[in-house]
Amino acid sequence: MAWTATATLCCRLIRLPSARHPTPSRARCSAAQSPDAVDKEYADLNLRPLYTNRGQHLRIRQHVNPLSSSFSEPTEPPEWNEVFEDPLLPLMVDIGCGSGRFLIWLAKNSSQRRNYLGLEIREKLVERTQFWVNELGLRNVHFMFANATVSFEQIISSYPGPLSLVSILCPDPHFKKRHHKRRVLQSPLVDSITKNLCLGGRVLIQSDVLEVAADMRERFDGHSDILAHVDSVDKDLHCDNEGWLLDNPMGIRTEREIHAELEGATIYRRMYQKIRDASH
């Protein structure tokens, strides 16, 4: 299927050497090694001098119950022309953006003309990340305190430009079966992502927990009439025999990805591309 110029612009991605098969003998990282590895990966952002202004070691809850009544109301969208210099550019949304370094790095280093939006349910992380954005003077990236499960549709449907890429990277696994309903990727969110993506737009999912990755995969595989796995339309991206991407397509690893690979874990990835609208 021929891509539009917008789809081609919004979906071109950087390639990295394969991170699919970590070395089995890799020793489990120490508590000291892991932060050092993150700092090294994101060294060019030069965020360390800003830590003195907005503490490096914030006390952040690692697990949040998204079903709490305090997260049940959708978050209002921002004034897009106030948060982005050009709100008509293609938009990438990172759901569960954590500390935000991954998205800040892309906003600063990517060759693509694109806006970046991070959605995070832990408010203190959003406050610190937006502080960094303001200090760095970036006008193509913005972070919001929001429960994406209930807020994605209201926020993204108001964006004036095309939605070109959505990433859900190592979300909270909520291991216990009775807590699976707390996982960020529920059917309404999958439906909203699929509906709002521009033609040729992509979705990247990944986790170091196979059960979580498989659950996300099953949900997006259920939209095969609209979404195709990327290896069927982009021959530069390759999968293993089980259909997981061999390479990280983003040019930078997330913090969780760094931690997991230091511990010898495997990262399971899938990427989908929108090949037709639902009405076709």
Care to describe what's here?
It contains nine helices and seven strands; from the N terminus they run αααβαβαβαβαβαβαβ. It is of the alpha/beta class. Strands 3-2-1-4-5-7-6 form a seven-stranded mixed sheet, sandwiched between helices. Strand 1, helix 4 and strand 2 form a beta-alpha-beta unit. Helix 2 crosses helix 9 and helix 6 packs parallel to helix 7. The protein is globular and about 45 Å long. The N terminus is likely disordered.
Core attributes:
280 residues, alpha/beta, seven-stranded mixed sheet, disordered N terminus
Write the layout of secondary structure elements.
Elements: H1 5-11, H2 33-41, H3 80-83, E1 91-95, H4 101-109, E2 115-120, H5 123-136, E3 141-145, H6 148-156, E4 163-169, H7 187-196, E5 197-207, H8 210-221, E6 227-229, H9 255-262, E7 268-274
Parallel strand pairs: 1-2, 1-4, 2-3, 4-5
Antiparallel strand pairs: 5-7, 6-7
